[in-house]
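Field: sequence (string)
Field: structure_tokens (string)

Example rows 1 and 2, in order.
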Amino acid sequence: MRRTHLLSGLLMAGLLCTGLQNLKAQTTKAYQLSSSNLKTLKETKVGSIARLDSFLTVDFPKIRYDKVVAPGPQFIISDDPEYIRVPEAIVLQEEVNPGAVRLYVYNVNGVKEPQQMKRKITAVLKNMGAEPLTFRMLKYSSQKPSTNYFQIGKKGLEDFFKSNVENDVRKVNPGEVIAIDELLEKNVVEYDQLVHGFYEFVVDQPAQISILQTAPENYGPDVFPTIKTLIPHSHENAGRGLFGVSNYTVQALDTLDTRHGVKQLIIADGNDDPWITGTIGPKKEFAQNAGNYGVMYKTKIRWKSTDGKGLALITWNSRSADNKWCGGMGLTMELKGSQGQSVVRQLPSDVLVTRAAPEAILIEVYKPDPTKEIQGDRVYLLSTWSFMFADAVGICSYRFVVAFYMKFRLIVFLGILLNGCVSSSKLSSNHKDAEFYLKDEVRPALQQNCFLGAYYRKVVSSRDYWKGIEGEVILPFMEFDESRKNSQKIGQYLDNPSVYMGGDMDGQETDIGLTWEVIKYEDGSVSQQRLAFRPFFRRAAHSSGQMSLWHYAPAQKEYYWYPGEKVYMSVEIIEDKKLRMVISGEGKYYEEVFDCEGYKLNEIGRFKRVNAIDQVRNEGKDVQPTRTIVKGAHWLYTNLFRDLEGVRVRLPMHKGRYTDMRCPDQAYFDIRQEKEEMGKGGEKIEIRGMIN
């Protein structure tokens, strides 16, 4: 018999919104929030359980929404069979294309014949390509096997949300097999214990992913070629297979008003929101993910408070009586505020699970900003909704609920902190937007014209006495449009990502940074594919007669950087007519000085940073439609150099110090800033070559 447990997946299920002053007008008793329930909510700690008597119902009006497929990795889930009854067997085997992959391992040692025995459940990867494969882990969550499925499900998702893996890069030769998670290789799995692993990684060659069960003393990659049993699928539990959809964006169609009462949003129930489908194995048999486990939902709800009331987000186990597997519920969520700040919570936070109504979990409280009519995306949920309990038939659907409650009256004070290195007499401040400026500093233009030929995100300074720019960035990952191959260069695409800085002084423009390039192997051969970011320098011609110049760093491994790596780069005037570029990080360093006639210490000019999808043979033309996606770029900070009182200082390139450019149209970009990043020139950037 399948035990009641938590199947950690990505699921959202219902939002409730109610305005207190209107509750007396409601005729349905279940919609009313009594004074005792209001008092309970006010006294409940966020994340804890509140008992809301005679309030919770599945009949609340639904919120209308648009749901679109968002860019995301290839997705593999292993939950069929959940209980592995065969001592030595493969329970999942799928082939993936080069690119990003999300893998969700959810399997139990179920061996009972000839007797219960200790096992190992592990995940392996085989390079199916003709060239060496680079494996790079992006996000990692691996739990110690346990029979407490709720606990490791909640903790597993918390670890995944908080994960940001660096320097886990492995080379895999053609035909070679490696363990995806070495911790799984060390675990000994007792009978009935769950193995829970959740990963995202990137490969640059075709690869085969397999989940297998074997004896604890065996090393997965070594024993893998000898295992001939592949357990057939049964279309039970959540399922198994390879899925093309891994992320959704959900946007409520209506702006919710606190005075209009209770609302709920239903997602991933199989009806209002159908389950994703894919394929199983080499025969590409039909697969369905019953519950959309492992799928990310980025959910946005705009709201307003015409009655001055705040918002409470709650959830409850609405299907507890429908199925014997739905007796308890636990989940983990990531919530994002209006400025992009995030928090990850296990729910409930004070106990393991919630059982049934009248129990409800208070997820978050949102206070209205009295200076705004529309509260933006203040209810913003990026969720691997953990979740529910599945049996062989289906899923126990739950609802997250938003209740409007209690009045807030806010007086806002702006606190400003500047870690500066110049005297206060040189500084002025704009208290409206909490940004600092130099006295007499030139403010940037409100807008600038786009240059044709590429998709690019640029932030560019004012034209002032700047001496350069620096910043630290996590390099992006790419998903290329397979229909846009470069016919003149086998293995390459017509779209090419770049991350760079540069300037414009006395009519001479420079671009200095990293572009996606081919690499040279140790035997001297050159890859057909572009496989690494490599430093470059471009200088335009100058009116003095200086010619234009393109320069690349040598094709050597010490000058290759890869997606997910953290890189520092800077461009700085070190003396008249000389620019120094520096690119460093991950134990690698490149520096060079270039002659640039237009760049002088007492000249005014502009400096910029850029993230782009460049297009081959397309400069000066309209961008070509493409399904290429460049994602995961994250500028941690950006500074502008300035000489003040004889000292070179760094000033943060805050949001008031640059012109915001998204070319050719802002619809191609997803730009996010955590609140603290706004003051230091940080942001996350995703570029999509085609609007959904």
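Row 2 begins here:
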Amino acid sequence: MQQPKPASLQHAISQRILIQLGLIVGILLMSMFAFSRGRPIYFVGIVALPVMVYFINHPPVLFASVIALFNSMLTFPGIPQGLNAYHVAAAGMIGLIVASLIITKKTYRGPRYLSDKFLLFFTLIILMVMTVHGSGLRALGSSMWGGMAYIQLFIGMGYLIASRYIVLTEKQWKYTVAALVLLTAVPAVAQVVFVLSGGAIYQHYMFVKAEIGALAYSLYTHEAAQGVPRYQMLGNLALAVFSLAMVFMPLRKSGMVFFVLTMIGVFVLAGYAGYRNVLFRIVLTLILFFLLIEPRKRPIRVAIMIGLGFVGWLSLIPVSGSLPLPFQRMISWIPGMSISPVILYDTAFSNEWRFQIWDMVLHDLPQYLWVGRGFVMPASLATLTSETMGDSVLMAYLYHNYHSGPLSLLMDLGILGFIGYTGFLIFAILEMYRAFRRLAPGTFLHRAFAFFFAHFVVFVLMFYFVFGDVKSSSMHFFIYLSILRGIILTSRQQKAGQSVSESSPDRTPGALPHPIRA
């Protein structure tokens, strides 16, 4: 005789059926309305609603989609300017988690982090700055511009908190990392196609966010054969392929050839991107990864890294002057390199530009030290920006693009914002390091955690000492911290012997996995 289902299980199933029926009715009504009015935006809703139905039954796929879409720069018509597809997916995940918690009335029983308290404090500082200097949300009647930065931050912080309620299996993590690498190639391929076609093929930018400055520069240098020809979007692809090599290729004799070939491909991609900081990040992440993984082999691996680095440095010295210009730009920070005068001028101009914007920010910083400037811009400055298009330093200042993480925090969110954000990052690093030491060594999860933790730490260091911006860097921190926390939950589920697959007999198919007790 079949066992009756528990009342709570029946309640969860009935709630899920009601939600799905509601969405089906919504699809029918929107279809009728779209055909009667002929409005294209409603057809987007028709496509979106079935996707919502799928994600309600597969929350882990939605969580994995946010991560996979992060570097893809994918978008689609109808998304507000400033948001990408991963923002929409993250916002949808937040709504799904909130709705599920309201329906099931479950409480969080997973690990709690002190860093989240600093994040809450940082959120309160943002709200205070918005209250004093305005939100910049013109849709709500504001007379200022720039409120999309606040929306991006709130989506990122909400996503990080919501991610604690979803647990992936180890197999799902492998698919997620592979998808992250694959989709990171989208903007790189889009830029290469655009430039090599002389700008004739541009239609794909209906669905890929266009970095106008990078595209215009790449097209000009390619067509005019002047300056430093670069494909800037290859920088993220180099970092993504680097993660593929470190996570999926254990350093064993059988896989060493593939690892070396992949790393050569990483440096080639980074070279054509021409970013100095990309090479710097790869080197630092590689060093930190090897210091974390397999402590017993740490001394010999450190010695091997030092030796290989020394050999690589000596090998570059005689050939550096004959390398393509973007490669020379990438290695221009390494001592002893023979660098073209074109690159020396390019890097000197870049450094001088940063000094000028920093000088402007430091001059105005005292008046914003306690209550930050915020991210908005008064409408009265709109005409000023159009009149100063030739002054890139002033334009950067007006649009809060300071090229410095600490100055971005201090200028836009004040000393309290700096304290809250810095405390969040410091305690996140300490918490993740303690969690890493409890992971089972020699496993995929251990290796993946070691890489993403090293990447996270290096990016924090770069944010404070090389380049950073609280608007553009924050989502990077939230995404990679959600990966680290997610791996911790997966490891705990494995240790407890609990299945997190959708076919688990002790929970509703498609229901949200629940973190176990610490």
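free_text_note (row 2): Residues 498-518 have pLDDT under 50 and may be disordered.
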